[in-house]
Specification:
Number of helices: 21
CATH topology of one domain: D-Maltodextrin-Binding Protein, domain 2
Number of strands: 15
CATH architecture of one domain: 3-Layer(aba) Sandwich
Structural class: alpha/beta
Oligomer: single chain
CATH class of one domain: Alpha Beta
Largest sheet: 6 strands, mixed
Length: 457
């Protein structure tokens, strides 16, 4: 126990230190397995131990969460990793500056298609369908055949335009030469409504978090094709989002909130606690889904087909391991690159400065300094260079054990030169030309990245 803890928590482990600006909070969440850090922090007493009284509010959609945080109806919320960026830039709504100083989870998504579409894909290209990870090559053949026959494009759903679900689905489609804005129709559906829309035939498939892929597989309605972890190993997923003004006026409260959720994430990543966590999440006030379905992915298993045995997926949900709670600015920059790639951002902007404005590792480091955790020394890292576990230097002597970070198509994202990455992508809908972005986005390097590489035009 650190000296800070002895002074501020006393012998019983309850917060007795300097008063927070706020001691009662209301936090929003969506009924998904990866709302677990908020649920555990409340139910296991981590919020209380930090001197916080927290009420959790289950919301109906990500747009509702964004709007309620902006209006001050929620103090903060579980948010999609891209949502604080989109809100700050005014993508899809009026601009409202937000920040995140904590990542809540890595991975957790999958792409599922209706059983009828799966059967068509299996028939046209069994080799592609047997590969792991599964490519979209068979789907490309079906799309081309349907277009030649004069049929309407297939409809796929994702949960929000600024979600990893949207970007992962687009990434997977585009890797096979499918243009997500021309060859299919993409719509927004709240996570809990995905299975009903699949059953009704309103969508041919979707990308969503758990338990809504496994629920479709369990009911025999769909086949999961690929997990988010297979698309990008240990990709960012959810974050704690608060408004910029709230963070500025409540720094001690914000720090206490971060510490409580970091401790909840550490508790969650102890395998001995995953069954208890599934039982908590299954409650009607939280995810309201069968505990055995939630327990499957929390326990590191994933079932792709109805009636098939689950396969090992040890990193399907990561809440603390692999520096999962650290808000990497390279993650924010990748998200910004996708917003540019798909035309959500049409005007030139400074990508690194925008990431630094929204993702705040400085706040994270200050909040957890008293916990004695190993913390990354840099704000950025190259994404996609490790296919196996690796180690990262920390602010302490102890290195951090990291998980693989590879993209399934072998691409590497270097935050030191985002423009080279954007130039290399064949399928895109860029509104801002790379040449227009260049004056605002010089190449840079950090100790973690090393010298910036040289790319030819």
């Amino acid at each position: 126990m650190t000296a800070w803890h002895e002074v501020n928590f006393g012998r019983k482990g309850r917060y007795i230190g300097r008063p927070h600006e706020r001691d009662t909070l209301r936090l929003g969440f969506i009924a998904l397995t990866d709302c677990a850090p908020l649920v555990v922090a409340r139910e296991a007493g981590f919020f209380e131990a930090e001197g916080l009284g927290v009420a959790l509010s289950r919301e109906s959609s990500w747009a509702a969460i964004r709007d309620k945080v902006a209006l001050g109806m929620l103090d903060g919320a579980q948010m999609l990793a891209g949502m604080p960026i989109a809100s700050t830039l005014g993508l899809g709504a009026s601009p409202h500056p937000m920040v995140t100083a904590l990542s809540l989870s890595l991975n957790g998504n999958a792409i599922t298609v209706a059983s009828s579409l799966f059967e068509r894909m299996q028939a046209v290209d069994p080799v592609a369908m047997a590969a792991r990870p599964c490519s979209a090559a068979a789907l490309k053949r079906i799309i081309d055949a349907d277009r030649a026959a004069g049929l309407e494009p297939l409809t796929f759903a994702m949960v929000h335009p600024a979600s990893m679900h949207n970007y992962q689905l687009r990434y997977w489609l585009a890797s096979a030469g499918i243009d997500p804005d021309r060859d299919v129709r993409l719509i927004v559906v709240p996570p809990a409504r995905m299975v009903a829309n699949l059953a009704a035939g309103r969508v041919a498939g979707y990308c969503v978090g758990e338990p809504w892929n496994q629920m479709a597989v369990r009911a025999g309605l769909g086949h999961a094709l690929i997990t988010g972890h297979e698309i990008w190993n240990n990709a960012p997923e959810k974050v704690l989002g608060v408004s910029h003004d709230w963070a500025r006026t409540n720094p001690r409260t914000h720090g206490a909130l971060i510490r409580a959720l970091v401790r909840a994430g550490r508790w969650l990543d102890d395998p001995a606690n995953r069954q208890d966590a599934a039982d908590l999440l299954a409650g009607t006030e939280y995810v309201d889904a069968p505990a055995d379905v939630i327990r499957r992915t929390l326990g590191g298993r994933f079932c792709y087909r109805p009636g098939a045995a689950p396969r090992p997926a040890p990193d399907f949900n990561v809440f603390y391991r692999h520096a999962a709670t650290f808000p990497w600015r390279s993650h924010a920059m990748w998200l910004l690159s996708q917003m540019i790639r798909w035309g959500q951002i049409a005007m030139p902007l400074d990508i690194a400065a925008t990431a630094a404005r929204v993702y705040r590792p400085d706040i994270y480091r200050e909040a957890v300094a008293c916990l004695g955790l190993a913390v990354p020394t840099a704000d950025h890292k190259r994404e996609g260079t490790h296919r196996q576990p690796w180690t990262l230097a920390s602010a302490e002597a102890e290195p951090i054990a990291m998980g693989a970070d590879a993209f399934f198509d072998g691409r590497v994202f270097d935050p030191g030169d985002v423009l080279a990455y954007l130039r290399s992508i064949p399928v895109h809908r860029r509104g801002a030309r790379v040449a227009e972005l260049a004056p605002l986005n010089p190449m840079f390097s950090t100790p973690a990245l090393g010298p910036a590489p040289v790319f030819e035009e």
